[in-house]
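Sequence in, structure out.
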Amino acid sequence: MSVISVNKDNFETVKNSEKTVLLDFYADWCGPCRMVSPIVDEIAEERDDLLVGKVNVDNEPELAEQFGVFSIPTLVVMKNGEIVNQSTGARPKNQILDLLK
């Protein structure tokens, strides 16, 4: 499954997904975000059991604020509309996959 761009208009649909949701909060100018982005893309392609979305914090400051995102990249894992795990900073793939357990 491909990564979807998450914004305030489609957030409720994403949040209420039956699948586990992995959200990547990022900005285009952020170096560590550019390191994490291809890993998130790869996970999205490999895992049909996930809904993977990216939130551009420059375009969606309300969503960033709602999740308490002060540093990027921030990865958020949600199940049944609730945050179950969160991580800030660049992480290797194995650590990102560990967030999903």
